Amino acid sequence: MFIIFVIEITVEAVTRTLNKNITMARNLKIRDLTLRDGQQSSFATRMSQAQVDRCLPFYKDANFYAMEVWGGAVPDSVMRYLNENPWTRLETIYKAVGKVSKLTALSRGRNLFGYAIESGLGIMRIFDALNDVDNVKSTIKYVKQYGGIADCAVCYTVDPKYPEPSFMQRLMGKKRPQPVFTDAYFLDKAKQMAALGADMITIKD
Model pTM? Predict the structure, then answer.
């Protein structure tokens, strides 16, 4: 079986306040995305339960901080194309590695996966493709309400490369558009998500 391992390196900064002195503790944690993004991107989420089961002992030994195993196309593809039960997949993975690694799902916008937390999901990676913070508000609320960890992702992008206005355009007052996706833009989105109760902030491509 051919698997491409997709690894996300997460540097989590934890802030603690003691006697008004703020100290920062940095921990390097590895989150494996193979069983969700790896197989979804490489071969259209067609890993069968039997193939997943063969990998699980290796995952247990790897001792990742977290493994992204659900969300995206996984539930739909497992039912539609493999004729398998997506809950069986999630619960089987949790039984094998749940005491070693936290299980993660990718959740777009207002999707609600509170029910999946009961089947073993620990972290919900929540994003909106346009960074519309209002679209992740309800998901953060219910993930936390059901005991999950809200991992809010800011989607990274860059501004288009606009051509320089011509001489005549400059005479007419036309200027190149100002950058939108600046450091300040991404920081503001992260602060908004933190204010809604995000337990961690990540950057998503």
Answer: 0.79
